Amino acid sequence: NLPVLLGLIDIWHRNFHGFTSRSVAPYHQGLRRLPAYLQQLEMESNGKGVDLDGHALPLATSPVVWGEAGTNGQHAYFQMLHQGTDVIPVEFIAVKRPNHGASGELADRLADQHRKLL
User: Fold this and answer.
1) Is the pTM of this model over 0.85?
2) Which CATH superfamily does the domain covering 2-117 fall into?
3) Residue 46 and residue 29: Cα distance in Å, rounded?
4) What is the DSSP string of the chain?
5) What ranges do the domains of the chain cover?
6) Tell me: the pLDDT tens digits for 25-56?
């Protein structure tokens, strides 16, 4: 169950490794709003310090979630991810069959690059 595994990895990263942020980099323009959606979902919903009864939680909650479609965001922050001093988990998201609308040689080159990235 992929969602359960990803959730467990997030708990592991946040509470055992102490990572305070996570980047999400979808490599398809159709998913360009996914990082913003996850910010709303995870940081607002899970970024609480108390449970429903008002008791302090024993574990850290949501990390800071940020990112952008990889094709747009790569120059903005990938330099820091590659060469910075903080460890920041990155979730790269690719699609199995891109719908870029290209044809001929361009489509072949795009498909080849897509396979290499996967």
Assistant:
1) no
2) Glucose-6-phosphate isomerase like protein; domain 1 (3.40.50.10490)
3) 27
4) -HHHHHHHHHHIIIIIS---EEEEEESSGGGTTHHHHHIIIIIIHH--SB-TTSPBPSS--PPEEEE--HHHHHHHHHHHHHHSSS---EEEE--SS------HHHHHHHHHHHHHH-
5) 2-117
6) 998 888 999 999 999 999 998 889 999 999 99
